Amino acid sequence: MLSLLVLAGILCLGGAAACLWLIDRRERVLQRRLARRGQTGDPALPTRSVRARWQLWLLARQDELPRYWAAWLLLLPLSGLIAQHLLAGPAGLIAAALALALLVGLQAYRAAQQRQRAILQLPALLDGLARLASVGQSLPLAFGKILDDTPSPLAKMLQRAQALHSAGIELDAALRQVATSYRISEFNLLAAAMKVAMHYGGQPEKLVNRIATVLRARQAAHEELLALTSEVRLSAWVLGLAPLAIGVVMGMLNRDYMSVLFNDPSGQRMLMVVVVLQVFGAFFLYRLAKRV
């Protein structure tokens, strides 16, 4: 079992290194392609190409990862080795699986928080666009200037759209692609404002101000909804984490009592049933909390 866990750790590190190399290579290839398109002035960048969409999707996921994300993969074999040393049976594999689920959940939460911060920063960017447009600058030109003063993570997301625009794609189409890649639908409102300003003219600063007002109103309503449903979400967290906490405490207080679940075949079957039921219960509690 220990050799299997060590092999799993080596495979995780090798997979992380391969993923880093592939992501870096694809980003360099995409940047070279964008530079060539921008120099030749060819507007026919494959906006509907499956390969281009996947490249943008990979770049978006790379932006969501923490800086030293490969080091976090060491948690998988490390947790398995510790559990295998303390308990017998399939404890190492179960601990590695739980660590993997924990990492996936933490990354999903981190990505959601990053998207939320970008949405909160968007109204301030729209106010800056409106100010620049009110003094006579076009929205695409103002968009390129205001990115230098935009904080992260919104700046990194919109710089992808600016790179596509520099390669020859219309700015509204580039923003729609970025909205799809980062799963932020609010970028579609900015894309609509860009399309209206570029194709129909008028007074774009008024449209941009109204979009900023709508986004602030939506954010206020969202915060009020979170405050009203906090009790339900807290109950879901307590019910989901209580079995795990009780199991850990009982294992620390009486190892012989809990070792039956890992050493005895019937106990192992019961443990697998408990894990499956816990996963399904956590999923249903998550869906219940999201529906409120």
From TrEMBL:
It holds the Pfam family T2SSF. Residues 127-250 form the Type II secretion system protein GspF domain. It is found in: Cell membrane. This is Type II secretion system protein GspF domain-containing protein. Signal peptide: none annotated. It is a multi-pass membrane protein. It comes from Jeongeupia chitinilytica. The chain crosses the membrane at residues 6-23, 68-87, 93-112, 234-253, 269-289. Its main location: membrane. Keywords: Cell membrane, Membrane, Transmembrane, Transmembrane helix. PANTHER family: INTEGRAL MEMBRANE PROTEIN-RELATED, PILUS ASSEMBLY PROTEIN.
